[in-house]
Amino acid sequence: MGHEMYTAENVRCDGCMNDGRLADKSCPVRPCSIAKEVGNCAYCDEYPCDKLEGLICSREKFVERLGDIPEEDYNLCLRQFESKPELAKIRKALGKE
Fold it and tell me: Terminus-to-terminus CA distance in the chain, angstroms?
């Protein structure tokens, strides 16, 4: 029990350059983004880097690791960690991919 607290809606991070919600207070990426003054990793010239290892996920990666995931379980506990598609959209808009 307790996993129902972790949903995509309530475990969102407002971003590296934002003083709002943080999904992980010990995130290794946030201090780097602040130091480099980039909005998030998608804007960084060193993307992807070692700091992102294990933090960037996609649904395909989850399925590879965990097997088939029912849609309800995915939305309840895993969707909030699916960052790769969002970063890819930003990089494409910037002409970096």
Answer: 41
What are 12-33's pLDDT values in tens digits?
Answer: 666 677 777 766 677 788 889 8
Q: Which burial class, exposed, middle or buried, applies to 13 when counting CB atoms under 10 A from its CB (0-12, 13-18, 19+)?
A: middle
Please list the helix, strand and coil fractions of the chain in percent, rounded to the nearest 5, in that order. 45, 0, 55
Element (H, E) at 28: none
Token pair of 52, please? 């992102």
Instruction: Please give the model's pTM, rounded to 2 decimal places.
Output: 0.61
d(CA 50, CA 14): 22
The whole-angstrom separation of Cα 11 and Cα 81 is: 9
Hunting for tokens 């699916």 — which residue is that?
82
